[in-house]
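Let us work through a complete example step by step.
Step 1: write down the sequence.
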Amino acid sequence: MARDTEADFPCQGMTWHYARMSGSVSHQFNPLARLAAAAAAREAAGLRRRLVPRPPAARRPATGITLDLASNDYLGLAGHPRLAAAAAEAAGTWGTGATGSRLVTGTTELHAELEHELRAFCEAPAALVFSSGYLANLSAVTALAAALDDGGGVLLVSDERNHASLIDACRLARNGGAGNSGVRLQVTPHRDTAAVETALATRGEQAAIVISDAVFSVDGGLAPVAELHAMARRHQALLLLDEAHSFGVLGDGGRGTAHAAGIAGAPDVVRTITLSKSLAGQGGAVLAAPEVITTLVETGRGFIFDTGLAPPSVGAALAALRLVGEDPGLPGRARRATARLAAAARAVGLPVSDPTAAVVSVRLGDPDDAVAAQRICAAGGVLVGCFRPPSVPAGQACLRLTGRATLNEIDLSLASRVLAEVQEHCHHGRNTAKAGRYH
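Step 2: predict the structure and record it as tokens.
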């Protein structure tokens, strides 16, 4: 193909060289300028995101932050010396990396030990460790959808507020990313069991998987786990629960919602967990029947082609799991601290979710209001999460606060003070907006 013309386009101190080819479009296009324009649009909408390096806890007071209510360290184990010692010991024994995929060199005896103890603690049929919870979800949904589609089709029924990892997994399965040609996705309204029942009862596909967060990551609401399982069983479907925000916080000793519902060992229940929240480390796992685990090992692309979880992370997760087993009161302390945070927000008139685990949401609506509220909290020494679109739907920007088993009365008093300041700012903003309408 002959070259017609050439052009050079400057972009942020560099020159973008564009060659227009015969038969191609006639307009000039600068991809980096397009990306910069999109970033500017997000900035104007109050949706720009930036990385802010976090100092170690020992230096945090120098930044003005004395209380962290943004992390997912629900049980307060991230700084525990036993986890650090276990990670160091694992690095000394096995090295700093897994050195390969789990099917080649990436499975150490330590990985097998963690899987055995996860299975036993959670009273699950079997367990398989991944390098992240996100990848565990992606692999479980896509591999199971592909394996169940023998020509009769597969229906995925997914709650509209599921985590992004489940949403991406469903999209990949539906679009044939894992070799699935007969997969259909139906997104149901949030916690709407009637819609799930209808989807299952009227499906034309032979197989089905009901997919839901156990505890939803933004507002901390609990899924109707028992009802979902009853429906799935009634219609010969699998139930896949993401227990990222319930494992370590709900159920007997932190064993999760499936355990609390009495379905932990059910063969038609697939659970995914993360090791990065209550266990204060890195990685994820799938807890399921041996047939499911075998399918993931033999066909799950996210398992087969990914490097195994690094041994120091495995060692730290094992130490954390054993600590949770030794102190079954940790989950209850985390829940009580979260309830206190919600009560403090409610007491000053802020719209707040009703937490069931360790997450509470303060609903502000406008993304600029949420960012301003986050800054007010930071100025008062408290770090909180700020969720804006696309993490939440438009008009539902919020602050996300997380309880922790180690919060004390001084922490909770400080949180109450900054929440009162947030409410004062929001109240002033609403009054100003009302006054503006009459001028």
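Step 3: interpret the result. The radius of gyration is 24 Å.
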